[in-house]
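Hey L., structure's done. Input below.
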Amino acid sequence: MDNFSYVNATDLEQVTSLLSDSGWGEVMVVAGGTDLLGELKEYIETPKTLINLKSLPGMDSISMNTTGITIGALTTVADIANHPTIQQRYTVLAQAASSVATPQIRNVGTLGGNLCQRPRCWYYRDETVNCLKKGGDTCYAVDGLSKYHAILGGDPVFIVHPSDIAPALIALGASLKIVGPEGEKTMKVEEFFTLPAANPFRENVLQPNEIVVEVHVPQPKQGTKSFYLKAREKGAPDFALASVAGVFEMMGQTCQNANIVLGGVAPAPWRSTEAENILSGKVINESVSNNAGAAAVKDAQPLNDNAYKVTLTQNLISRTAMMAVS
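Output:
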């Protein structure tokens, strides 16, 4: 990797000031570093300065009140997975966090880093390949090896978003706070991510002089059940082939409302309103859950090597829905 300067941040104002004074990619922030250090080694990113966010106080806390739970962006994935209240009330989030990588990575990886991580596409990660996402004119997955690539929303770049936590947060209706040189702003986590059709070079709307500082998850309604199911090769501590975050407001066997968000199948966490419409207001049974799964993938456009994701995703949605009545 190239040489770089290293700055221990003292406050958020210093961070946004340093970011504002530089061109895109010249100054970058680092927390756990589990993703960024790989990009540095592969010369995908070549910053002149890294700002260490872990020296900032107070951004690694989990706090609760009557409106919900607030999680600092520097909170480790392990702390989220192991938090008793999250396990009990926000089960889908705890399950998603516990599915991330290995214990070693969960102990250093952060919430903010998990949401902002870059894609794992082998063409994008290859420093010798100038793919469309890096400014070239070709997404090589279209005619190349596409086993792990998108089946939904991929045109013109068929990467998949690697976060497990993001689908869970979207299904829970979470919002995040962003700080930049002009102050704070809040948006839904669902609005944070962007598809390649809007911007093939980025996965979110974060500006180069902004950082995520916290996430707020509202208190689930009474009777809510939530689950995260993730399929990966041979049960390895790996990224999702496909995953489903499901949040169900239940009254007995009847689903009053369902939120279904997919991971591992699209360039951004993919909300399936088709599955939600079939499940909401219905008594959940095998027929209804199977129909929800089929509806979610009816518009899928698999590439040469990933048609298996269509059936896999359909079955994961059906299984997740049936867990709400088990």
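The chain is about 30% helix and 20% strand. The CA atoms of residues 31 and 54 lie 6 Å apart.

-- N.
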